[in-house]
Amino acid sequence: MAPVTLAPSPITPTVDFDRDGVQHGFLRLPYSRDDSAWGSVMIPVTVVRNGSGPTALLTGANHGDEYEGAVALFDLAQTLTADRVAGRVIIVPAMNYPAFQAGTRTSPIDKGNLNRSFPGRPDGTVTQKIADYFARELLPLADLVMDIHSGGRTLDFVPFAAAHILPDKDQEARCFAAVAAFAAPYSMRMLEIDAVGMYDTAAEELGKTFVTTELGGGGTGRAETIAIAKRGVRNVLRHAGILTGAPPADGRPAEAGRWLDMPSADCFRFAEDSGLIEACVDLGQPVRKGDLLARIHPIGRTGLAPSEYRAALDGILAARHFPGLVKAGDCIAVVGTVED
Ligand SMILES: [Zn+2]
């Protein structure tokens, strides 16, 4: 097959990634539309560089309704000074910026789910153009890639950092070492329902050390989970040798919390009915195989029995559907198994 030559990305950075010091700017993506004929999407970016050394690429709001990463990274961008850095930190607090501005998971412009849009296209939709720029321009600059997710408006999670089982065991070990360094209350060996098109997969296929998280949800951030994100980002940068100096007194806990695993698709429970969900277990609580996780009450009339959803394995409730009403097909619960 002849190699495919892609057009250059239409995105122009207003920062110079090779210059020392702190620069705040934008990834400018031309987007011609009714209210702005020659307009652009302006995605905020900060680069902090100090000499040679490894590069970390840090992103939040890959999904626009997930807030811990955005808060932690807007804060880091505003406070990180070059004298604390050995190497380079590239910070994009709101990766899918149109979705972030709208407070929605996907982009209001093209309905694009950025984390299902990789490797993207330089001549595609706005979301595909963002994916293409990260895949071809930013990921190759990075040694360490951290993408901070939460549950968004429809899911809620126990706070964990995570990596995936990978074919390259050296790379996998680097990823899990970074997960441990993040030192969230939980650390997860994560199984994806559908890894095609994910930023994670694009980064992993380039051999990068990749860490992701799920730090709460419900379409907001909590003081506890924001603190975990702020501390975890600095912990991983320190682990990579990019952030120098002593950690603050409120720095990292001694070690990562409990390790969780998602050994098979049995972890997931999907609604087969629509209706009113009755949670029977809260996040973090232990469950045994066969335990009731949730009931779904029909809401069209009274007098009907609820349907029951039970755990298929022993573990803890690691994620749950957040809104009180569910539709058939919604993910209503995830059970993570606890490693010894
Ligand atoms: Zn997400």
Main traits of this protein?
globular, 15-stranded mixed β-sheet, alpha+beta, 20% helix, 340 residues, binds zinc ion, four-stranded antiparallel β-sheet, 30% strand
Query: What characterizes the major β-sheet?
Result: 15 strands, mixed
Structural class: alpha+beta
- As a percent range, the share of strand residues is 25-35%
Radius of gyration: 21 Å
N-to-C order of helices and strands: EEEEHEHHEEEHEHEHEEEEEEEEE
Shape: globular
Question: What is the residue-averaged pLDDT?
Answer: 95
Count, helices = 6
Amount of helix = 10-25%
Uncertain segments of ≥5 residues (pLDDT<50)?
A: none
Oligomer: single chain
Number of strands: 19
Q: What ligand molecules are bound, each kind once?
A: zinc ion
Distance between the termini: 48 Å
Q: Summed up, what is this model?
A:
By secondary structure, the protein is α+β, with helices and mostly antiparallel strands. The protein has helices spanning 68-79, 97-102, 126-138, 169-182, 199-205, 223-239, and strands spanning 12-13, 21-30, 40-50, 55-60, 87-92, 144-149, 155-157, 160-164, 186-190, 209-214, 258-261, 268-270, 275-279, 286-287, 292-297, 307-310, 315-321, 325-326, 331-338. The mean pLDDT is 95.
